[in-house]
Design goal:
Helix content: 25-40%
CATH superfamily: Gcn5-related N-acetyltransferase (GNAT)
Shape: globular
CATH class: Alpha Beta
CATH topology: Aminopeptidase
Distance between the termini: 29 Å
Oligomer: single chain
Radius of gyration: 16 Å
Number of domains: 1
Strand order of the largest sheet: 1-2-3-4-5-6-8-7
Length: about 180
Amino acid sequence: MIEAMITTRLHPNAADFTITRLDPDAWQDYKILRLQALATDPQAFEASYDELRAKPDTYWTERIQDVVERRGSWLLFAKREQRLIGMVGALTADERHIANISAVFVAREARGLGIGTELMSALLSELRQERSIHRLRLYVNASQTAAVHLYDRLGFHIVDTDRATYGDGQEHDGYVMERSVA
């Protein structure tokens, strides 16, 4: 397993955790965490639990393999005591020089400990090394106020609003937020 980008204690009550990538053989851990995210917070994601649960194993293995082979895809995970507790991803956009941030999630029992900030900071650090990427974009449900505040603290600005159907099957107001990679 590719490990140890960051090991830190952010909060006096937080256990140590590691920000890591996954080895392709650990695709099932990714699948479990991604489905957990969609089951517990469907209003935060455009994909639905049922949609991704039905995907074949090759979908999950290819996603991890794309990251390993650096094919315009990034996935980082927060891990505590051999268990994944958070993730963040990015994909290159159709537009030149833009990466879309996606799949930001921290398990409920690990929220409020700064793990989301550390995941995003680690991803931003990696994306700064990509010379072809100049801007970062993300979409967030406007009702996800903790996420909106996190992105704002990390330098993202609202550049547009939209209305979309999220994984809970409901339409929600959302924000398009962007920032420079630098």
